[in-house]
Amino acid sequence: MNLDFHDLSGTFTVFDIVVSLTLSFLLSSVIAWVYRYTHKNVSYSQSYVQTLVLCGMIISLIMLVVGSNIARAFALVGALSVIRFRNAIKETRDVGFIFLVMAIGMTTGTRFYVLAVAATIAICLVLLIMNKFDWFKHDVRRQVVKVQVPPEPEYIARVEDVLIEHCTEFELVSTESARSGALTELYYTAQMKKGVQASTLITALNAVNTGQRVTVLTGYDQTDL
User: Fold this and answer.
1) pLDDT score of 140
2) Residue 194 structural domain
3) Backbone dihedral region of 67: left (phi > 0), alpha (psi from -120 to 50 degrees) or beta?
4) Same domain (yes/no): 24, 125
């Protein structure tokens, strides 16, 4: 039985390893800092940002291992397919940053160093410009209004009269039973009139729903729940 030991590290030099891993670390760190700087919501995770840097370096290492060997590439795809991610991505832009560090890891791992640096600078610059000038911002902010009322139909009409008075538009999203049928819970999306405060709307709704619970969630489309 042949027990010869074969080391395939000679397919790339020590210099290639150092440059690829170092450059992937530096460029992934730049992307991570851009993510941190442009992040606006409340779901910021230090662990996620550190994972971006780690992911870039790991992809670079994988590309060094794969090289131009097709069989090795398919073997790695099969091995990595067993990985399952349990944490849901809360923002779509987070997925974009994952793909970005993966792309940078691929370019550094395949030794396209100039392309990796140029792509990082260009894409990060675009991200900073979009953040600076608030591109594609939608100024219309809607509210979620949750009202508990007695199950009689006339209370729904009273609630909607208040919404007509204080909101430019509203829509009933769902109706649920609460407290074993003793109350009905109404969910609306609404856009309040200019100058109307959430506290004013809550006070008006409390006056027609026999003092039951009223919740107005403002800016729900920009807040992670």
Assistant:
1) 56
2) 143-222
3) left
4) yes
